From TrEMBL:
PANTHER family: SEPTUM SITE-DETERMINING PROTEIN MIND HOMOLOG, CHLOROPLASTIC, SEPTUM SITE-DETERMINING PROTEIN MIND HOMOLOG, CHLOROPLASTIC-RELATED. The keyword NADP does not apply. The keyword ATP-binding applies. Keywords: ATP-binding, Nucleotide-binding. GO terms for cellular component: cytoplasmic side of plasma membrane; cytosol. The gene is yhjQ. InterPro entries: Cellulose_synthase_operon_BcsQ, P-loop_NTPase, ParA/MinD_ATPase. This is Cellulose synthase operon protein YhjQ. Pfam families: CBP_BcsQ. GO terms for biological process: negative regulation of cell division. GO terms for molecular function: ATP binding; ATP hydrolysis activity.
Length: 263
């Protein structure tokens, strides 16, 4: 099983939405998928079909209250096995952040306990980088996807944090989310980001802005089901295709995302 960490260096990047969408698209391609929520916002479960915010989850396991997966996992309609973060207090988060600092391989060891097929993949939705949760996820990852909005603040923050992300030894790629090519400011910000991150920023690793995305999520649906021919749907399928090929070892990691998507 390979592990993919999705990180962001600013809030509101759409990291959780991208994580959930990729989990579903990879599962629909026949890939065994596990998704873990390491973000105290506890939103991944809502994206994957839970009607209410999960009360218990990985946050409590990280705080030493039980095993990581026992009794804390769910499987959604698309077959994605996922573990929510759970609702935690400030004191609980303080406790588990201290524990994660003392046990830097806690997540690596926890993932090793999942009985998953070799061709399976674990997707990790993390708290904002840098954080103890994100550090654990990046340390456990074979691939790190940095999700960033194409604005000056997001690009500048990612450029500053990028060297420490690459120190992990994992393959690191940038996913530009909510891209609007008509905005000059976004194009200028991406030029600056490319200068900082080099080949990690491939223009094909992008998801265009679509106002229908939050409306679809509010209805409990996916944009790629409701509007399969939209540009954002096309982008998400393309990214899922790239990841699927990377997982199989059939893709040159420098290649752009395939422009054709499969259903």
């Amino acid at each position: 099983m390979k592990t993919i960490a999705l990180v962001s260096t600013v809030g509101g990047a759409g990291k959780t939405t991208v994580t959930a969408a990729l989990a579903v698209l990879l599962a629909r391609r026949g890939r065994p998928v596990a998704a873990a929520d390491l973000d105290p916002q506890n939103m991944l479960g809502a994206h994957l079909g839970l009607d209410t915010f999960a009360r218990a989850g990985l946050g409590h396991a990280m705080a030493g209250q039980g095993e990581p997966w026992h009794g804390n996992t769910w499987r959604n309609a698309d077959g994605v096995l996922f573990a929510p973060h759970g609702e935690t207090t400030l004191a609980e988060r303080t406790a588990y952040e201290a524990r994660l600092a003392q046990e830097p391989h806690w997540l690596v060891d926890a993932l090793a306990r999942i009985d998953f097929p070799a061709r399976g993949v674990a997707l990790l939705d993390t708290a904002r980088f840098p954080s103890q949760q994100a550090a654990q996820a990046v340390r456990a990852a074979d691939l790190v996807l940095c999700v960033t909005p194409p604005d000056p603040a997001g690009c500048a923050t990612l450029a500053r944090c990028f060297p420490s992300l690459r120190e992990t030894g994992a393959l690191v790629k940038v996913v530009v989310n909510r891209l609007n090519p008509a905005r000059d400011m976004q194009r200028d910000a991406l030029v600056l980001l490319r200068a900082a991150v080099g080949d990690a920023l491939e223009l094909a690793h992008r998801v265009h802005f679509d106002a229908a995305m939050p409306e679809s999520l509010a209805r409990g649906e996916w944009l790629f089901d409701e509007a399969p021919h939209s540009q954002a749907s096309h982008d998400l399928h393309g990214l899922a295709n790239w990841i699927d090929a990377w997982l199989d070892g059939t893709l040159d990691v420098g290649m752009a995302v395939d422009s054709e998507h499969t259903r």
